[in-house]
Amino acid sequence: MSRYPFEIPDIAGKVLTVAGPVDPSVLGQTLMHEHIFVDLRRPPGFHRPGEDSSEAAEPLTLANLARTRHGHPNADNDRLADFDEMLAEVSAFAHAGGGTVVEVSPMGLGRDPESLLRLSRASGLHIVMGGGWYTPTFHPADMAERGVDALADTIVRDIVVGVGDTGIRSGVIGEVGAESAPLTENELKSVRASGRASRVTGAPVTFHVGGVGEDKLRVLDILAEEGVAASNVILGHAMEVITNPSLGERVLARGVFVEFDFLASPGSPWGHLVLTSDHKVARGIAELVERGFARQLLLGHDVCQKIQLKRYGGQGYDYIPRHFLPALRRLGVSEHTLHTIMVENPARALAFAKPR
User: Fold this and answer.
1) Residue 164: CB atoms within 10 Å
2) Which of 23, 28, 103 has the alpha carbon at shortest distance from 342?
3) pLDDT, tens digit (0-9, with 9 covering 90-100), for 64-94
4) Which of 225, 207, 226 is nearest to 216 (CA)?
5) How many whole angstroms separate alpha carbon 346 and alpha carbon 198?
6) pTM value > 0.85
């Protein structure tokens, strides 16, 4: 007998969007790692130098745009919440032939289920909403006191019942924060709870980094212990797969999806910190295709701040179809393979497994 006060539905083979389950065949071109409604303003105690200054509290305007783009904190930049603004931005992807956006803002990060559903209906895009927990900075204050089962139960309810009383359900667990080196106990607990919830519901799990270096394999070991199939796991921000080929080979051998999502870095909040350029990422992806890993590759922009939006001079949500895919074509990646990466792989990655 289930220990849950609700029935766990079996939607194996379906993708769970904010509007309900759909067949994977309807997704079309899919961005696998984006934020549409998000609040990255750090809580007190985690502020960066200068984050408490009067300058950081100013609205983002032309007067401070360049300063913000060069890394100076700006609270307004860290929040995407204006419905009309975000509808215009994501509609650019729809106009470029896009069909689905995976919105990976989990609990505690400004997630807005009702606005996502409204935006899905207004844009015509399928939206898959995230759940679980992000990095330690954004963990709940009592994270250390919560057990794995309690955390897993919260995620399960998000997927089966919906967020709060909205009835709008998460269709992917994540982006689960796992970035510390080494991983903290709370991060490891979050990873295990995510795996446990995935096994119970069949939901896929997507990671913010998923561990640095050997910790990537540790994360995958935990998920395997919890009974999660590799085909249900996505390692985001996977540049290390390219920059550390030996590690990348071992990660890919596990059969998980790897996601390249710090694209359009000149308009990225981490642009000055990204270890490699989009040109190098494109070449790395072309090499992975040559080595036979095309069916494990996913793409996204990780739009999460105003400076990445077109309105503020960023590349927006259509950079991949308009610029990055043509770059891959020039490197010899075939149309068939691009379809695999943008359409077939997301359809498989987002499909629920049978709950157990």
Assistant:
1) 11
2) 28
3) 999 998 889 999 999 999 999 999 999 999 9
4) 207
5) 17
6) yes
